[in-house]
Structures are given as structure tokens and as C-alpha cells.
């Protein structure tokens, strides 16, 4: 059976979780505590980079959410989440990559620093600009279609949809993007989205943890580098 190492709030794990549900696959969930336990030896043996998601399918282990989504699409294609048309496929890939490379970095910056009064700086302004610029592009790309690939629900919805509906929590009004706002509401009404919905408490806990994870990672990295240096000295 498929096994997904995940954390409920993770914006990287949630698209894989959604894809498994939308594809109507049987799978086992293995929760990972993101309060720092992902850097413990037990999980580092599963993923040496210390992050979720990780998918196991028999003897195969796949890390990185985009790689996992591509694997699921190629391996379990009965319910397709990618279009065959070249133009539609390009649109889906654009949405996926823009979400990862433009929207998420801005969202993470706002998530970590936006409530700190001493950091109302050019960095925050740039993060807000980055988020708004991506939302504007997605708004225009979506146009009057139901989905980014037209009538087909795809990975574009699964990847972008897990992030877009959270931007109002970070001070960016989704009402400024009426097509995206309607699209997002329709996604949240789907059974799969409702099945994995976060409570307000879960979301607030995740935001608090996100603000300390960089410090945890730096400490763990320093510890690992120190251990490696000591090993090299004894060789």
C-alpha cells in the first residue's frame, strides 16, 4: 500500500495528500511532527533533508512534492490530473512552478516576519509585491474558465489551491482577484478539500512553528557540521 509521510498543515505535503484522495487511491498516512522532530535521526533515515512529503510505494521511496505528483500521475493514471493537450499542459505547469517559485517564497516571508513590527521593511514590501504579482498573473491566466486547463480539474488546482486561499491571512485581499476568489471557494467546497481542512487552531499553531523552524534548522545544521568535522579529525 502507498504510504505518505506528511504533516497536516504542510503546503508541500497537502497537494500530495489531495492528489491521493482525488485519484481515489488507498494509502496510509504517517504523521511527522514539524516542531523539530523532522530533524531527528528516525525521520532523517527516511528523508535526509528532513522535510515532508515522502511517498513510499512498495520498495520505492520518492521525496519532493512535484516528483511525487508526477509519479502518481504516471503510475496511477485512471483518474488523470494532467491534460494531454500541449497548451493546457503548459498552463498547468506554469501554475505549478509559479506557485512554488514565486507565490510560496512571498507567502513564507509574510508568514514568518509579517507580525514583527521591527521588520516592516523593504523585504516585507517585496514579499507582498511578489504575492500580488503572482495572483494577478494567475487571475488573468484563469480567465473565465472553471479551471486552469479549461474544464479539467488538474494539478494546477491542487498545487495552487492549497496556497491561494491562505493569502488573506497574510494581509493580501483575495477579493482583489474575483476570478481566483471564486475558483478558490469552489475548490474548498470539494470533498477532498473538506476532508483535509485545517482548524483555526491548527493553522495558528503552524504559523507559530514556521517562525521557529529556521532557528531549529540552523541549530541542527551546526550540530551536524560539528559532528562531521570531529569525524574527519579522527580519521
From TrEMBL:
<dbReference type="InterPro" id="IPR010987">
    <property type="entry name" value="Glutathione-S-Trfase_C-like"/>
</dbReference>
<dbReference type="InterPro" id="IPR036249">
    <property type="entry name" value="Thioredoxin-like_sf"/>
</dbReference>
<feature type="domain" description="GST C-terminal">
    <location>
        <begin position="85"/>
        <end position="213"/>
    </location>
</feature>
<dbReference type="InterPro" id="IPR036282">
    <property type="entry name" value="Glutathione-S-Trfase_C_sf"/>
</dbReference>
<dbReference type="InterPro" id="IPR004046">
    <property type="entry name" value="GST_C"/>
</dbReference>
<protein>
    <submittedName>
        <fullName>Glutathione S-transferase family protein</fullName>
    </submittedName>
</protein>
<feature type="domain" description="GST N-terminal">
    <location>
        <begin position="1"/>
        <end position="80"/>
    </location>
</feature>
<dbReference type="InterPro" id="IPR040079">
    <property type="entry name" value="Glutathione_S-Trfase"/>
</dbReference>
<dbReference type="Pfam" id="PF13417">
    <property type="entry name" value="GST_N_3"/>
</dbReference>
<dbReference type="InterPro" id="IPR004045">
    <property type="entry name" value="Glutathione_S-Trfase_N"/>
</dbReference>
<dbReference type="Pfam" id="PF00043">
    <property type="entry name" value="GST_C"/>
</dbReference>
Amino acid at each position: 500500500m502507498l504510504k505518505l509521510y506528511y504533516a497536516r498543515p504542510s503546503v508541500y505535503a497537502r497537494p500530495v495528500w489531495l492528489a491521493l484522495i482525488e485519484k481515489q487511491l488507498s494509502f496510509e498516512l504517517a504523521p511527522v511532527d514539524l516542531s523539530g522532530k523532522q530533524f531527528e535521526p528516525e525521520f532523517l533515515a527516511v528523508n535526509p533533508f528532513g522535510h515532508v512529503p515522502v511517498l513510499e510505494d512498495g520498495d520505492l521511496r520518492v521525496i519532493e512534492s512535484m516528483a511525487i505528483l508526477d509519479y502518481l500521475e504516471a503510475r496511477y493514471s485512471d483518474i488523470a490530473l494532467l491534460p494531454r493537450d500541449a497548451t493546457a499542459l503548459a498552463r498547468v505547469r506554469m501554475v505549478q512552478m509559479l506557485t512554488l517559485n514565486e507565490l510560496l517564497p512571498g507567502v513564507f516571508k509574510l508568514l514568518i516576519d509579517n507580525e514583527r513590527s521591527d521588520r516592516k521593511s523593504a523585504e516585507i514590501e517585496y514579499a507582498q509585491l511578489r504575492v500580488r504579482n503572482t495572483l494577478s498573473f494567475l487571475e488573468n491566466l484563469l480567465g473565465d474558465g472553471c479551471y486552469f486547463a479549461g474544464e479539467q480539474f488538474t494539478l494546477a488546482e491542487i498545487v495552487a489551491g492549497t496556497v491561494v486561499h491562505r493569502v488573506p491571512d497574510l494581509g493580501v485581499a483575495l477579493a482583489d482577484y474575483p476570478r481566483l476568489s471564486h475558483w478558490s471557494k469552489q475548490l474548498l467546497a470539494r470533498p477532498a478539500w473538506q476532508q483535509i481542512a485545517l482548524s483555526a487552531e491548527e493553522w495558528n499553531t503552524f504559523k507559530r512553528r514556521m517562525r521557529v523552524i529556521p532557528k531549529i534548522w540552523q541549530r541542527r545544521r551546526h550540530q551536524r557540521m560539528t559532528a562531521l568535522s570531529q569525524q574527519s579529525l579522527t580519521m
